[in-house]
Design goal:
Length: about 130
């Protein structure tokens, strides 16, 4: 169990660093908008797996539903509805522009995380057998 937590913590930190580097240094039409959105769901799943290494078998589904809900909030411009458009932090955190492509990227990230979990479980279980 401890080994899984460490693997997910390392994955979380690696993806967090990647997301920060993308945000700071990448300004293109593919990596930042698509890869960044895909990685954010993997980041969130990894974060939760540090604290919940077992159980919540559908964690990637829950994360996808959360991400899609945030995207729907962007469609309705919830930041403006709450009168927070002057708050840059909230505007960046929640986003202000809706995109169906973002929802697709979130889905790809969650599917990718299902594969990550299979790989981590295989690695941890194969080490126990040795």
């Amino acid at each position: 169990m401890k080994k899984k937590r460490l693997i997910y913590a390392a994955l979380f930190l690696l993806i967090l660093l990647s997301e920060i580097l993308i945000a700071l240094f990448v300004n293109d039409n593919f990596v930042r908008p698509y890869v960044g959105d895909m990685l954010v769901t993997v980041l969130i799943c990894s974060f939760f797996r540090v604290f919940i290494p077992k159980g919540a078998k559908l964690l990637p589904v829950y994360v996808f539903l959360f991400a899609a809900a945030v995207e729907v909030c962007q469609y309705f411009d919830i930041v403006k509805l709450f009168g927070l458009e002057g708050n840059r932090f909230i505007s960046v955190l929640l986003g202000r522009t809706f995109s169906l492509a973002d929802i697709l990227c979130y889905a790809v990230g969650c599917i990718l995380f299902f594969g990550v979990e299979k790989t981590v479980n295989y690695f941890v279980n194969s080490r126990k057998a040795m």
